[in-house]
Amino acid sequence: MSAPGVAAERELPAYRWVVLGLIMGVLTVANIGPMGLPALAPLLRDDLALSRQQAGSFLSAYYVGSLVMAFPAGWLADRLGVGRTMIIGQGLVAAFLVLMALTPSYPLLMLAVVLAGIGYGMVNPTSTKGVMIWFPARSRATVVGLKQTGLPLGGALGALLLPALAGPLGWRGAVAVSGAVVGASALAALWLYGEPPRPEAAPGAPAERPSVRTVLTNPSLWLVSCATLLFAAVQVAWISYLSLYLQEVLGLSVVVAGFYLAQGQTTGTLGRIFFGILSDRLFGGRRRIILVLAGSLSGCLALLMTTVSAGTPGWALSLLALGFGLVGIGWNGVQHALLAELAGRESAGTAVGLGLAVSALGVILGPPLFGLVVDRFGDYRWGWYSLAAGMALALALLAPVKESRRRVWE
To answer: How far apart (Å, rounded) are the C-alpha atoms in residues 332 and 86?
Structure first.
């Protein structure tokens, strides 16, 4: 993929920051429409006569589509290149957002949401490789962490902008506008994104080729993927149930409980950058130790949640929310960097796609399993114990990871 008008700039270090800004924008814009659908749920319920369960099912459908496509998309990025794969994914998201705006029924709406998720499933692992091949090893976890802030930022913008647009345009008009914006970002990527020059192979060394088999037979990749499945399950269970827990057990209002959740979401977004810097600068590019640190602290904070009661002061609740958000959500960028480096440059997309596909199972299964535990024992404390146990198992899976075998490229 060649980007006219910027070819001369590509040799300059400054161009890599253009790439990072572009990809952050791509991720942010791609998530405004799908992640903003919950904010439009009351309007959708009225228009399509949806049940509460149906109105709350959009994000699950979106993640199912992303899960289905993550691994094939990584392979496509390795084969076709980052630019082509990312633009195809954006095109799918844009097209199916417009289809959502035109759909007359719930089944067709859900189909469009799943297909938009498939488009996003092409963008996410591809974008990780897209920034990593442009930056040196010493800063990769940092830039991937920056890139990964696009998802929560897109969700926040969707929750803010779509209801505002729905006032004059209706929910269909708001969703259609979000699709048009994704289409515009695809055109920007077509113009601005270019693949960096491939590094020359050492004399006599065979050229490295993308290999699905190499990825699927790498034990460390599977260990990291399964460990971060548990990380993801713990993260999304905490996000899903914190407000409910604070309302039911502590008697807080919806607004106050939401305030504590917002604190955790904020530090979670910042944590993606913080842990990237920590890995690149303080730990000399080591990744596993960051996941171990984040997992250990998440498990400890889950245990501390069992001590919360109606008498717990607000500042203590804030510390718990801020702390868990930082360590329980902020690990994501380091995970991407480790997966890519374990596979090497030519198979980085496939490896990240595998990791995202596996960890997405945690996103889907974590909240209902947490709820099942709480319902079974009739006490939220057992839910928090289960999160701590999940993190302990994740740390055990990380222990044998051969980080020394990372194929770090410059």
So the answer is: 20
C-alpha span between 271 and 333 (Å, rounded): 9
Name the pLDDT band for 410 (thresholds 50, 70, 90).
Answer: low
C-alpha closest to that of 328 among 385, 288, 286, 272: 272
Q: Check residue 407 and give its pLDDT.
A: 61
pTM of the entire predicted model: 0.80
DSSP letters spanning 293-352 = HHHHHHHHHHHHHTT--TT--HHHHHHHHHHHHHHHHTTHHHHHHHHHHHH-GGGHHHHH
pLDDT of residue 404 exceeding 80: no
In this structure, are residues 224 and 331 in contact, taking their beta carbons and an 8 Å threshold?
A: no
State the Cα–Cα distance between residues 73 and 67, nearest whole angstrom: 10
Each residue of 310-330: pLDDT tens digit?
889 999 999 999 999 999 999
Which positions ≥6 away from 84 have C-beta within 8 Å?
A: 1
What's the alpha-carbon Rg for the chain, to the nearest Å? 21
What whole-number distance in Å separates Cα of residue 375 and Cα of residue 369? 10
- Tokens 């505002």 belong to 164
Token output for 98: 């417009």
Q: Distance between CA 89 and CA 348 in Å, rounded?
A: 18
Q: In the CATH scheme, what is the code of domain 7-192?
A: 1.20.1250.20
Q: Where are the domains of the chain?
A: 7-192, 212-400
CATH number of 212-400: 1.20.1250.20
Domains 7-192 and 212-400 share a fold: yes
> Across residues 301-314, what is the average pLDDT?
92
Question: Of 284-288, 350-354, 390-394, where does the model show the most confidence?
Answer: 390-394
Q: Are 36 and 178 in contact (CB under 8 A)?
A: yes
d(CA 34, CA 160): 13
Distance of CA 372 to the CA centre of its chain: 25
Residues in CB range of 231: below 8 A, 6 or more apart = 291, 294, 295, 298, 328, 331, 335, 359, 362, 391, 394
Task: Say whether pLDDT at 372 is over 70.
Answer: yes
Percentage helix, strand, coil for the chain under 3-state DSSP, each rounded to 5:
80, 0, 20
Residues 114/302, Cβ–Cβ less than 8 Å = no
- Cα angle 304, 306, 312 (rounded to 5 degrees) comes to 80
CA distance 58 to 41: 9
